Amino acid sequence: MPCQSCIVQELSVDIKFEGPQNQQMLDDVRNHLNRRDFWFEETEGIMTMTESGVKELLDFSQDYMEIEHIDYRFEKSEWKPFSTITHLLDKQWIDEVIQKKLIVSHSQPIVNRDGEIFAYEILSRFQREDGSVIYPNEIFDAARTRGRLYALDRICRLTAVEYAAVLGKKVFINFIPTSIYSPEFCLRSTVMLAKKLGIDPSQFVFEVVESDQVDDIDHLKSILAYYNERGFQYALDDVGEGFSTIEMLEDIRPHFMKLDMKYVQGVSTDPTKQSVAASFLRKSLEIGSIPLAEGIETMEDFEWLKGLGYELFQGYLFGKPSAEPQREIKLTKEQISSL
Description:
Layout: E1 12-17, H1 20-24, H2 26-35, E2 40-43, E3 46-50, H3 51-64, E4 70-73, E5 80-81, H4 86-89, H5 93-99, E6 103-111, E7 117-127, E8 133-134, H6 136-145, H7 149-167, E9 170-175, H8 183-186, H9 188-196, E10 204-209, H10 217-229, E11 233-239, H11 246-252, E12 256-259, H12 271-286, E13 290-294, H13 299-308, E14 312-314, H14 333-337
Parallel strand pairs: 7-9, 9-10, 10-11, 11-12, 12-13, 13-14
Antiparallel strand pairs: 1-3, 1-4, 2-3, 4-5, 6-7, 6-14, 7-8
Helix pairs in contact: 7-9
């Protein structure tokens, strides 16, 4: 079931011309593109071309056509004004990032109640060929704009699996469920790579990020069932007061649930956050999930949550994400004695 988002190649764009002036100019458009040797084809009044042709058409239309009466789409998405296509073209750099695998894995420790490393979360970091950093919000915006979300998610997963072999402990790996249209097809490479590297599937925990707004719960369940049947575990990330919905938690029953850091930081002195943390803990235990508090930065919050009954913790108090795996937790003698 190949799709354009799985293979990073030049996008094909559909162009629709409306208005009498634009219709009159179509022969000139065809002749111009042919003279410049740009590929295009026409079906039922829609002209399809590659991005290089689109750039040429954009210059031509701005000079000779009514651009406000031209629309475009790609991968059968919604029609948009042609005047806004520069947003799509300007994000073309994401293709190079994916094709050249300009991705580096970092890890951050996850500790147990005794402050010992239980696992690592693997985080993707991106860079251009010149070494400059590309921030996650920038790269995922570009991937969504160009329909590269699956391709980016796939290369991040595979890079993380390779990094897991170095860590030698349980690892948490984020993934974007909305980018996966078929678990059997899209996740097969992840399973095959883990098997090739000889890593036990139980070492992996795949995190579903709540902020990705999963609407199709049945589809999400099929993805998690695919992982579960092959021995992998899964977690729900960034859970807060709404818990996505209680029904969702009942349906998917994650092995781990992460309390959103906005309810963690300052929880030792904030009654509202304490109430959310307590409700979260009760719900996680009710559905058989292991509760994990992320974003721990102070001993006070760590001790309060530990006293409440939380089992796992993550945050700058124990270590920041780094390319070189952190093998021990560096706390002061006073902090260690209080554990």
